[in-house]
Write a structure and sequence with these properties.
- The chain is α/β, with parallel strands linked by helices.
- It contains 7 helices and 7 strands.
- Strand 6 and strand 7 form a beta hairpin.
Length: 234
């Protein structure tokens, strides 16, 4: 009788494993709720003491060990026609960049992003989200090429408050999220900060290298390894 009970327990526990794994998934918003308060307290102290290196270490630790691996919530944004667009609409890995009209990008940042979006458009969805009104975003969208989806959240409309709180006010901006096909966060990065006064060519090269490194190491590597496995003979 004991042996029979053990067999049944084993069968049910094995059946329960996939469900357990599914339940273990944690969303980005949940991960933020768990770890952001402690990070903010320590980071504010570091900035107050002008210990910028410590602040950077704290940010890297938060994103690498607490937020990476969580799954991005299915946030909704608006496209330039005012239509709601959810993150789940994008089926490929996503290079998600949150921006603001008052942020002045480096000289070579947008040209580098445009060039890479054109290069990897078949493998990756490039998405830029602005925190601004439709008219302003429509004007700004002209700076991005056709391979980049430009979306926005207008805070003055009192909509998307939860999205704003999570993506704008939690980690600051501009912030880049690298998401795989399941919208799992593979990496969170900030824009390249380079010395003032460098040439546009130098700025372009630095941004191009940094963006492509993130794409190659955190988006394409996983996608291509999955393709290789699919092509293996059974």
């Amino acid at each position: 009788m004991k042996k029979i009970l053990l067999v049944f327990l084993l069968i049910f526990s094995i059946k329960g494993w996939p469900q357990q794994k599914e339940n273990d998934k944690i969303s980005f918003s949940e991960a933020l709720a768990l770890h952001l308060p402690s990070y903010k307290q320590k980071a504010e102290k570091a900035y107050r003491l002008r210990n910028f290196e410590e602040a950077k270490v704290l940010f890297d630790s938060l994103v690498n060990y607490k937020l990476a691996g969580s799954f991005m919530d299915d946030f909704g944004f608006k496209n330039l026609k005012g239509k709601e667009v959810y993150l789940s609409k994008f089926k490929k890995p996503v290079y998600l960049l949150t921006y603001a009209s008052w942020h002045v990008p480096g000289k070579g940042e947008l040209p580098a992003l445009n060039k890479l979006a054109e290069k990897y458009s078949k493998e990756i969805d490039f998405v830029v989200v602005f925190w601004d009104e439709k008219k302003t975003v429509k004007d700004l969208s002209k700076k991005f090429n056709q391979h980049i989806s430009v979306l926005y959240v207008d805070e003055t409309e009192n909509e998307g408050a939860f999205v704003v709180q999570q993506l704008k006010h939690s980690l600051g901006l501009p912030t880049c999220f690298l998401l795989n096909e399941e919208k799992q966060i593979m990496k969170i990065k900030r824009s390249v900060f380079h010395p003032y006064g460098i040439s546009e060519k130098e700025s372009f090269d630095m941004n191009y290298e940094a963006i492509e490194e993130g794409i190659a190491n955190h988006l394409l590597m996983q996608e291509r390894s999955g393709m290789d496995l699919a092509l293996m003979p059974e």
